[in-house]
Amino acid sequence: YGHSNQLRQARAMGDYLIVGVHTDEEIAKHKGPPVFTQEERYKMVQAIKWVDEIAPGAPYVTTLETLDKYNCDFCVHGDDITLTIDGKDTYEEVKTAGRYRECKRTQGVSTTDLVGRMLLMTKAHHSNIDEDLDYRKHTDNFGKGPKGHSPWTGVSQFLQTSQKIIQFASGKEPQPGDTIIYVAGAFDLFHIGHVDFLEKVHQLAERPYIIAGLHFDQEVNRYKGKNYPIMNIHERTLSVLACRYVSEVVIGAPYAVTADLLDHFRVTLVCHGMTEVVPDKDGSDPYEEPKRRGIFQLVDSGNNLTTDLIVQRIIKNRLEFEARNQKKEAKELAVLEAMKRLEEEKH
């Protein structure tokens, strides 16, 4: 949702947004191993509602040539630094030419932090107990080089505001003639498996209005176990709202799809993917009511990616990721030092 927020801000600066997405090879060279494959990433970015077009295989260093090729007036990046493998600012050329704009980085989330949460598999990040020391110690290792702490790669807490939800929400009410479809789940680490499922659900009706019910953290933990969810309810809300197929989100939906819920939202269809449905606390089927009404449908997304599998990918590459983040941090700190020196020389 940090990426989505950047794309939302960029889209607001102009009329048409083209997003350049790098290949796996380019990312591996400059940053370390990507979590998702390029095909997965192309599709994910395309599914974000502020994106008009993607440019697959975009070069890591944005040049004027690239901007001209796609007929772009300017490019936008967050206010953190991106550096090439040899420590140069990747936006130097476009900045000099005056074709660079900047948007604010989303506080409280980074790929680095999420990877840290996955590697840790502790419950500290969404519990009320004081963060357990293990997690704190690890976040310290994870986003830190040997000395100091970079403000870009460091870990800070995400704070939800009503404003942020409004910026992400579609604000569209269902219209007469819309088919109101309800789907529910954790939607944790919103990924391409979720996108494929929602796209399939979207294709079930001529005018679909999809409402996604998100379960509270404790509920997700009850049926998923371990330290799921990796993202808390606020983070999951924004991630799902950013998807172009979703019209509305119920924050903290009940686990059982009740008659009240179906009547309240005037739901005509309830869909679930091919993942296992864990019984409710009392052993009942959470989809009993929609099944009784004959409005329940299983939807095969054709994609077997799950949050579990992503976590496994991360753990498999654990050492590479930790090395990657420490290198990234060291480079960012070097730039900060250089910037500080420049400032001091000016005075």
Automatic annotation (TrEMBL):
GO terms for molecular function: ethanolamine-phosphate cytidylyltransferase activity. GO terms for cellular component: cytoplasm. Residues 1-115, 183-273 form the Cytidyltransferase-like domain. Residues 316-345 form a coiled coil. Pathway: Lipid metabolism; Phospholipid metabolism; phosphatidylethanolamine biosynthesis; phosphatidylethanolamine from ethanolamine: step 2/3. The keyword Nucleotidyltransferase applies. GO terms for biological process: phosphatidylethanolamine biosynthetic process. Keywords: Coiled coil, Lipid biosynthesis, Lipid metabolism, Nucleotidyltransferase, Phospholipid biosynthesis, Phospholipid metabolism, Transferase. Its EC number is 2.7.7.14. The keyword Lipid metabolism applies. Pfam families: CTP_transf_like. Transmembrane segments: none annotated. It is an enzyme of class 2 (transferase). InterPro entries: CCT, Cyt_trans-like, Ect1/PCYT2, Rossmann-like_a/b/a_fold. Belongs to the cytidylyltransferase family. This is ethanolamine-phosphate cytidylyltransferase. It comes from Galbula dea. The gene is Pcyt2.
